[in-house]
Amino acid sequence: MFSKKKEITQIDPQQRELYEHARKRVIQKKRLFQHFVVLIVGAIFFAVLNLVFGYGKEFTFFGVNWYVIAILCWVFLFTLHFCNVWLFSKFMGKEWTDRQMERLIAKQKEEIALIQKDVDLMYPKDELIKKKEGFIKGKTSEIVEELKESKKTITMIAAAGENNALGKDNDLVWHLPDDFKRFKQLTTGHHIIMGRKTFETFPKLLPNRVHVVITRNKEYQAEGAIVVHTMEDALDVAKGDEQPFIIGGGEIYTIGMDFADCIELTRVHGTFEADAFFPEIDTTIWTVENEEFHDTDEKHKYSFTYLTYKKKKK
């Protein structure tokens, strides 16, 4: 069961302010009855002075001793206070206060729901989603065009099997020392853009490279790396780099296809069981500009080919 405090936090600041105002009003009413107590105690005090100690018996008011008037006032105030306190305790105690708060919360929620209905009528959700998607698509196209106009070359670098396999359980399924050397040679001195899972496979940061990690998790922190949440943000971080590299994994490669100008692909000649795959390369968009075959040897169990793809100009 949720507490009253937790329910209040679900209301917007304006509604919370109304709630706090109502709560203060209840406290003010309680303090009012405390003042009555002071009056009653004072009336009793002066009545005792008159009846017990005889102070002020010589004073009269319209022929009536003042202490009689004081007693009548005291009885009136006491009766009024007793009734008010009893009624307040009976009908305006903690349970009453809680009910009032619940009613206020319910009323505000109803008003919010009515406002939401009006908003939905004026701005249908489907249309808003379409507008948002159109804006994002247009923004992405603008960024792509800006990158094309600049001298920047965005490169995706990967090693994939004949079936586009990248790896399994966040690890490679082959060991190619020469390919590692080539990866180091190409990426050193540049920004390397990757997903969170790829970053977490590194035993330590790769030297002489700026690590940019893309994740949906707004709270994610990566020591020694720059954390962003979109490819656009990652490329903005790397805007001073003439050749940033997108290094994976599979989802990041798929997103990167719209932004990349070049693909440095090591095609490993074999079919592998995997849970991450490189996206299909559309030959109507990409063309091979360089090809270099490497056969198997004592250090390389699989043959492989270095392929350099460039995006065709429209």
Outline the fold blueprint.
Blueprint: H1 4-8, H2 13-51, E1 60-61, E2 64-65, H3 66-91, H4 94-122, H5 125-149, E3 155-161, E4 165-167, H6 177-187, E5 191-195, H7 196-200, E6 210-214, E7 226-228, H8 231-237, E8 245-248, H9 250-256, E9 262-268, E10 276-277, E11 286-294, E12 304-311
Parallel strand pairs: 3-8, 3-9, 5-6, 5-8, 6-7
Antiparallel strand pairs: 1-2, 4-10, 9-12, 11-12
Please give a structural write-up.
With 314 residues, this protein is α/β, with parallel strands linked by helices. The chain folds into two domains: 4-122, no CATH class; 153-311, 3-Layer(aba) Sandwich (Dihydrofolate Reductase, subunit A), CATH 3.40.430. It has helices at 4-8, 13-51, 66-91, 94-122, 125-149, 177-187, 196-200, 231-237, 250-256; strands at residues 60-61, 64-65, 155-161, 165-167, 191-195, 210-214, 226-228, 245-248, 262-268, 276-277, 286-294, 304-311. It has an eight-stranded mixed β-sheet, with helices on both faces. A two-stranded antiparallel ribbon has the order 1-2. A hairpin with a 2-residue loop joins β1 and β2 (64-65). α2 (13-51) packs antiparallel against α3 (66-91). It is rod-shaped and about 125 Å long. The chain starts with a helix and ends with a strand. The relative contact order is 0.10. The model is unreliable at 1-11 (pLDDT under 50).
